């Protein structure tokens, strides 16, 4: 708001400008009149007396000064009146109220504009907030919905920890069996005498692993269909050795199950080829049964376990001849006998180190957990005549689904073939092979990588975890290898060590 004092101060320069202009015009007029008077005076002077001229000149000068002073006073008076009118009537009476009303109106409009702009800002903020919330909601729905292929990892690793622990237990059991056999623990076949170990193994060979066609089997009698018709002295092969009761002419000879021929010496067929061995030392049975619980049409499968074959093969590979049992209390009192017994224990330790790799391989391929054995989905067994009931939530079903996508779609590609490959209770080796190798042989896996960034990252982490499992298994294998090489090197240097030690003792005159 502008007050009267401010208005007066504002108008005073304007008044001064008008006053100066007016004075200038007045001076021009006076000069003009003076010039005219002077001209007249000059003309009059030429015709008048000198004293009269002086008086006239003085009169004109005084009149001129009076006229200027009077003009200035009149101008100041008029200017003052004009200033009073301009300030009091025009400015205070008209301009100030109009300006105040205009300011009030502009303030009101400005406040209205501010409210409108604030409403726009609020609307923009609200829309931006809703957009961000919608975006976050969409990203949450997109990122927190795992893909089906990612579930391959999650569903197939459920039993790996339990399977690995079970395999480690089987390795410890095999180590304990081997050590008890070498040390003659009571209850073992050769606990009291070496001949007991040989006898039990021979009986096992005759009834379980003997193949009569080995050792260049020939039927020298032409035309006879049965090898039993060949005279004893003309028979070849292992028929006589494989007779169960040892009497010539017996019709009971060789392995009772032809599928187990030479499994006690065939490492490739027994250990290397299968992905899963039916080995479980946590129970007291050599057989395993896969039962059907909720289906009356589906029977159960009774599978002969591989424990006996694995132990028999280990006896042929490691410590074929067990340590001596000819130790008595009186004998062990001698110093040389004590040294001999410590040497025998050293041999047993080295054999145990050598067999550790074998036990670890069997542990990796031993059958996994067999929980959740109920369900309603029937699967044919290897013979084709019996069905197996598998639960819908078993890990082996998901692994079988992965293998089913890799096998060609033909009548021979049945569930029996799949479970014959990975096992009804897949081992740690079988599960790790599927997750670290087989799953990447499916082209659909790479096509499914066209997925959300979050799911791709999840798959990357899962793949890294599987890679770490494989690296861990390789690391443990390298540790066993280094241990085996160190023991082998120590055994190779044993003769040189003894010779050097003996020579040093003789050189110093000591008793070696």
The largest sheet has its strands arranged as 1-2
Q: Regarding quaternary structure, how should these chains be classified?
A: single chain
Helix fraction? 55-70%
User: Which regions contain 5 or more consecutive residues with pLDDT less than 50?
Assistant: 6-11, 220-228, 230-234, 291-300, 371-386
Shape: rod-shaped
Distance from first to last alpha carbon: 125 Å
The DSSP helix count reads: 14
The SSE order reads: HHHHHHEEHHEEHHHHHH
Radius of gyration: 60 Å
Number of domains: 2
Largest sheet: 2 strands, antiparallel
Q: Please, could you describe this protein's structure?
A:
This protein is mainly α. It has two domains: 4-143, no CATH class; 159-188 and 286-507, no CATH class. Helices cover 63% and strands 3% of the residues. It contains 14 helices and four strands. The protein has helices spanning 4-47, 50-143, 148-156, 160-183, 194-209, 267-272, 307-317, 335-365, 395-406, 415-422, 428-436, 443-447, 453-492, 494-507; strands spanning 287-290, 301-304, 377-380, 387-390. It has a two-stranded antiparallel sheet with strand order 1-2. The chain has a two-stranded antiparallel sheet with strand order 3-4. A hairpin with a 6-residue loop joins strand 3 and strand 4 (387-390). It is rod-shaped and about 190 Å long. The model is unreliable at 6-11, 220-228, 230-234, 291-300 and 371-386 (pLDDT under 50).
Distinctive features:
63% helix; single chain; 512 residues; mainly alpha; 2 domains; rod-shaped; two-stranded antiparallel sheet
Can you describe this structure in just a few lines?
It contains 14 helices and four strands.
């Amino acid at each position: 708001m502008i007050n009267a004092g401010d208005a007066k101060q504002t108008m005073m320069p304007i008044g001064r400008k008008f006053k100066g202009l007016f004075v200038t015009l007045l001076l021009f007029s006076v000069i003009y009149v003076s010039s005219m008077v002077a001209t007249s005076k000059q003309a009059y002077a030429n015709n008048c007396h000198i004293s009269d001229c002086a008086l006239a000149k003085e009169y004109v000068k005084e009149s001129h000064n009076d006229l200027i002073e009077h003009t200035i006073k009149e101008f100041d008076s008029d200017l003052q009146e004009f200033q009073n009118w301009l300030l009091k009537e025009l400015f205070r009476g008209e301009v100030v109220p109009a300006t105040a009303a205009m300011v009030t109106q502009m303030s009101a409009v400005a406040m209205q504009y501010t409210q409108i702009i604030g409403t726009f800002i609020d609307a923009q903020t609200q829309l931006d907030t809703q957009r961000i919330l919608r975006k976050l909601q969409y990203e949450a729905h997109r990122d927190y919905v795992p893909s089906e292929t990612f579930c391959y990892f999650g569903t197939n690793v459920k039993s790996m920890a339990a399977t690995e622990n079970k395999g480690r237990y089987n390795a410890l059991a095999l180590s304990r069996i081997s050590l008890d056999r070498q040390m003659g623990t009571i209850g073992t076949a050769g606990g009291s005498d070496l001949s007991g170990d040989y006898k039990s193994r021979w009986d096992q060979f005759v009834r379980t692993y003997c193949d009569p066609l080995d050792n260049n089997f020939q039927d020298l009698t032409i035309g006879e269909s049965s090898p039993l018709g060949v005279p004893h002295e003309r028979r070849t092969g292992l028929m006589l050795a494989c007779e169960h009761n040892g009497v010539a002419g017996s019709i009971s000879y060789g392995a009772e199950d032809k599928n187990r021929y030479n499994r006690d010496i065939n490492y490739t067929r027994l250990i290397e080829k299968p992905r899963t061995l039916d080995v479980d030392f946590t129970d007291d049975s050599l057989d395993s049964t896969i039962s059907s619980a909720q289906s009356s049409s589906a029977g159960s499968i009774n599978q002969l376990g591989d424990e006996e074959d694995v132990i028999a093969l280990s006896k042929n590979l490691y410590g074929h001849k067990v340590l001596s049992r000819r130790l008595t209390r009186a004998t062990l009192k001698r110093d040389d006998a004590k040294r001999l017994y410590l040497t025998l224990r050293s041999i047993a330790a080295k054999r145990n180190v050598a067999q550790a790799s074998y036990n670890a391989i069997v542990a990796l391929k031993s059958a996994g957990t067999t929980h959740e054995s109920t369900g309603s989905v029937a699967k044919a067994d290897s013979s084709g005549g019996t069905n197996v009931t598998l639960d819908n939530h078993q890990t082996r079903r998901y692994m079988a689904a992965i293998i089913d996508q890799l096998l060609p779609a033909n009548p021979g590609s049945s569930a029996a073939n799949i479970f014959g490959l990975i096992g009804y209770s897949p081992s740690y080796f079988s599960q790790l092979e599927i997750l670290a190798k087989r799953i990447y042989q499916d082209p659909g896996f790479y096509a499914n990588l066209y997925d959300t960034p979050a799911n791709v990252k999840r798959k990357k982490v899962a793949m890294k975890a599987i890679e770490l499992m494989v690296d861990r298994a390789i690391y443990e294998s390298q540790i066993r290898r280094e241990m085996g090489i160190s023991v082998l090197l120590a055994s190779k240097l044993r003769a040189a060590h003894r010779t050097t030690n003996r020579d040093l003792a003789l050189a110093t005159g000591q008793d070696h």
